[in-house]
Design brief:
Elements: E1 3-8, H1 14-26, E2 31-36, H2 45-52, H3 68-73, E3 76-80, E4 93-96, H4 107-128
Parallel strand pairs: 1-2, 1-3, 3-4
Helix pairs in contact: 1-4, 2-4
Length: 131
C-alpha cells in the first residue's frame, strides 16, 4: 500500500479534490493525505458543490498545514502550485500537476479541473498497483 500526499497552497481546492478522487480510484489499495503550505479556513464552496455531484462530500473537511512529518509519511508527493514552499525529502517520488486554482471560478471550470484530477488520480492509482 502506498501513501500519496496531495499538496497545494490552501488545501481548500485542488489537493482536497485530488485526495478524495484518488481514494475513490484506489478503492482501499492506497492511502491519500492532503495539506497546504498556507491552509485556508474551509474547502472552497465551488469545490464542495462539484464534488457533491459525484457523491463526495467535502463540506466538513478542514484544511491542514503541510508539515515535514506529514510529508515523511508519503511515498509519493503530488504538488499543485506550491512552488518552493513544498519541502523536498530525498527518496520520495514527486509529481507536479499543473492545475488551475478553482477558487472563485465558474462551476463549469471547476468541473473541468475536477474531471482532469479524476483522470490523473485514476492513472496514479493504477500505476501504484504495479505491473
Amino acid at each position: 500500500m502506498a501513501t500519496v500526499l496531495f499538496v497545494c497552497l490552501h488545501n481548500a481546492g485542488r489537493s482536497q479534490m485530488s485526495a478524495a478522487l484518488f481514494e475513490r480510484a484506489a478503492e482501499g489499495r492506497h492511502r491519500a493525505l492532503s495539506a497546504g503550505t498556507t491552509p485556508g479556513e474551509r474547502v472552497h464552496p465551488e469545490v464542495v458543490t462539484v464534488m457533491r455531484e459525484l457523491g463526495i462530500d467535502l463540506a466538513n473537511r478542514v484544511p491542514r498545514k503541510l508539515t515535514l512529518e506529514l510529508a515523511e509519511e508519503a511515498d509519493v508527493v503530488v504538488t499543485m502550485g506550491c512552488g518552493d514552499e513544498c519541502p523536498y525529502i530525498p527518496g520520495k517520488r514527486y509529481l507536479d500537476w499543473e492545475l488551475e486554482d478553482p477558487k472563485g471560478r465558474p462551476l463549469e471550470e471547476v468541473r473541468a479541473t475536477r474531471d482532469e484530477i479524476a483522470r490523473r488520480a485514476s492513472e496514479l492509482a493504477a500505476g501504484l498497483d504495479g505491473p
